[in-house]
Structures are given as structure tokens and as C-alpha cells.
Amino acid sequence: MAVADLAARAGTSPSTIARLERGDPGVAVGTLADVLVSLGLIEKLADLVDIRKDDLGLALTSERLPQRGRSYAATLRRQERQDDKAGKDETDDVDPSGVAF
């Protein structure tokens, strides 16, 4: 089938079909679906969106190690320790009412 015929059946332009063939990420998924319908391959769309058949995605997920979460209380304690260290280095005297001398 010629590209012009496929484009006419899918309701798009030949340049969009060429971009789709090159794998351009700017081509809409709906355009891909229209092309698959035109070719009688609409069942292949389900294979494309099934995450269990995404070998690259599964490999990347298995390589990713779980990360330890940090609670809000732990974050506050860490900030307080940093503030205490920074406070020891300062030479200004601070009044308890908040007035600096």
C-alpha cells in the first residue's frame, strides 16, 4: 500500500505517516490507532500499551533499587542539627526576646 493511500485511509497526511514510521514522539497516539485500524491491526494497539510486554520498561524497573523514605520528623531533626551547628559558628549574641546586639 502506498503511503498516500494509507494517509488517506487514516485521515492524515503522508508527512505524518513518515514521521510515524521514523518513531517521532510528536505523533499522536490517535493517529497511530487510525493507521492500525486502516491496516486491520487494531489488536496490536493493546500489545503496545500492555506494560507486561514492555521489555525495556520492565528491565529499567527491575534495576531501580527501592529508596528509603524520610519521615517529616526526621527531616525536622536533621534541620535542627544543621541549625545548631550553624548557630555555634555565629559570633552575634542574641537576646531571648529576639533582639540582636
Polypeptide structure, described:
This protein has 101 residues and is mainly alpha-helical. Helix content is 61%, strand content 0%. Helix 1 crosses helix 2. The chain is elongated, with a radius of gyration of 29 Å. The mean pLDDT is 82.
Describe, in short, the structure shown.
This protein is 61% helix and 0% strand. The protein has 101 residues and is an all-alpha fold. The termini are far apart.
Attribute tags:
101 residues; mainly alpha
Secondary-structure element string: HHHHHH
DSSP helical segment count:
6
Q: Helix share of residues?
A: 55-70%
Number of strand elements: 0
**How big a fraction of the residues is strand?**
under 5%
